[in-house]
Amino acid sequence: MKNRETKNNAPAAGRTIIDPRGTEQYLKDSETWYRQFIENQPVGMFRTSVRGDGRFIIANSALAILLGYPSVASLLKRPVIDIYYKPEIRKQMLVELIKKERICGLEVEGKKCDGSPLFISMTLQLIRDGRGNPYQIDGTLEDITARKQAEMALNKRARLHREAQRIAKLGHWELVPDDSPPAWSDEMFRLFEFDKGQFDGSFDSFLDRVHPDDRQLVADSVSSAMQKGTEINHIHRIVLPDGREKYIHAMGHIECDADEKPIRMLGTCQDVTRIKQAEIEREETELKLRQAQKLEAIGTLAGGIAHDFNNILTSMIGFTQLAIKGLPEGSLIARKLDVVLQGGLRARDLVKSILAFSRASEQELKPIRLDSVIKEATKLLRASIPANIEIKQEIDSVSGYVLADPVQVHQIVMNLCTNAYQAIGKRNGRITVLLKAAEHGPDDAHDGFDIPPDSYFHLTIRDTGNGMDQSTLDKVFDPYFTTKKRGEGTGLGLSMVHGIVNDHCGYIFVSSKSGKGTEFHVFLPRIESAGSVASVPKEESMPGKGEHIVVVDDEAEIAAFLTEMLTGLGYRVTPFTDSRQALAFAGSRSTTYDLLLTDMNMPAIRGDALAQRVLATNPKVPVIICTGFSDNLDEEAVKEIGIRACLTKPVMIRELASCIREVLNPQDAKH
Q: How far apart are CA 351 and CA 312, in angstroms?
């Protein structure tokens, strides 16, 4: 038995017998060394369990201080989940760690003992038990709050910068002189409405979106900046895929290396469409205001010129008429003087035409000879249309009249012919003005003009310009529509013509083809009888009966003409060239006379004021006023004063004689 026990207690071959007491001491020493090693680290170090909310098994003072705990012991009492700002983060981290075994530089939002936030960076290593199950986690933790806060501040500034750029519609770009594509900010893509996936970033692709009229400007600007170092600062247009246009303000500069060699170009692009459109609208409004002021100034100037010129024409036409009356009918001198008289009458009509275009006038519908008005309008046009454009007239002298306002008929011809010569431009060309009678019956729809059956005057204005395509024809009468460049037209001319034609119960049509010129057709109803239109009678005398007429005109020649003319008609005349002397004579109760004939504009006392003061003492005396500019007369004021009639200079003998007889004795004037 002893031998067997001795044999069984003997050590097996190849095995080392270790004293259990020595192993325990080794483990204790190792754990002490491990804890000292962790404690001496400047970063937070720990070992935690995996299960549940986790618990700290080991932690160093650096970790306790970082998390704001008064001691390591107080930290070990708290669950691991307490160091996370959001508890679900730990669960997500465990799932990821089990997959990867090790995670480095995991940045999460944590919190301190007092709940204040901090950002931490963790490195984690998973420890498994003997069966391979997750058992513990070793890790380190660093406070990165300062860095994260700086990053957040930087990101916030970048976000605010991007938002400011979005609000201001301002993008930035970078262009390198080599073949590298330009670098664009997000706002640049939004401005130009490029898809990042489709835009290759090349300068040519960018130029394709620039308006064709502005591409050379943009290309030259970039080339000059690259070669000469000049700044980029210009506004150009871009055309978007749907046809919309934007105005872009581009700015940029070159950055060079130490050898002054360009290395890159930096710049911005800003959408200034609204600003530019507001500028355009303001410029157009200012242009319209200047045009209105110009027309007002022209009207004022024309009024002054008309007054003086009509005074001159009055004596010229008047004395010519008197001279012709004193000569044998058909004599050579009489024929020559008749040419002078016709020239004076044309000058009178020219003044009327100038006044018609220099002031706004109320519509005055009356029967007029359309051929005369059109010829008069084309005479005015010839002076303003360039010599490279021929004006051809084919005007039939058709009987009949048009019930119309002659001033507005002038506007029809002037606007259509002006549109025609602008369509021709600087090339040689022709404007043809045609007028003929047109009987439109119920079966005449084949002529292409959809108008009711009636008798019309058919006015055609034809040009040899470029013509218009169908899309332009569809909008040609729209207000403010124009194909001209900004500043060359308002787009109101043709719409105004359309409105005038409609007001006169007429019809207007346009036909055109690109490269084939344009034709405007105007139909105005024709009437056979002139009705109230007075025919132009021969200059026959309407003698007076010895009535006494006081004549007042500051122009001595006119006073002399009126005196001679009225004396020849059988009146007694007392002339004055000074309105004050006339007032002293005519205003006296002891003076007897039958009629006061006075000029309107005189230096001392105006004609209306003279009439008012004379009528205050002699209310039954008839008064006739003559004026060289009808706008100087206020019709309401004239009626209030009691003035019987108003005449516009130059006055024809027949017109004046008829007016005097009508005022003195209406029954005589009718015969």
A: 12
| Contact (Cβ atoms closer than 8 angstroms) between residue 385 and residue 421 | yes
CA 201 to mean position of chain CA atoms: 33
CB 97 within 8 A of CB 9: no
pTM of structure: 0.45
Q: Given its phi and psi angles, is residue 237 left (phi above 0), alpha (psi -120 to 50 degrees) or beta?
A: beta
436 close to 398: Cβ distance less than 8 angstroms: yes
Please provide the size of the chain in residues. Answer: 671
Please tell me whether residues 206 and 266 are part of one structural domain: yes
Residues of the domain holding 574 = 548-670
Which residue from 339, 335, 374 is spatially nearest to 353, judged by alpha carbons?
374
In a domain, 335, yes or no: no
Tens digits of residue pLDDT in 550-572? 999 998 998 998 999 899 889 99
DSSP 8-state class, residue 651: P
Domain assignment of residue 291, yes or no: no
* DSSP assignment of 106-146: EEEEEE-TTS-EEEEEEEEEEEE-TTS-EEEEEEEEEE-HH
125-173 residue pLDDT tens: 999 988 999 999 999 999 998 888 888 888 787 777 667 667 767 888 8
Residue 440 covered by a domain: yes
Q: What share of the chain is helix, strand, coil (3-state, %, to 5)?
A: 45, 25, 30
Instruction: Identify whether 189 is part of a domain.
Output: yes
Burial, 465: exposed, middle or buried (Cβ in 10 Å; 0-12, 13-18, 19+)?
buried
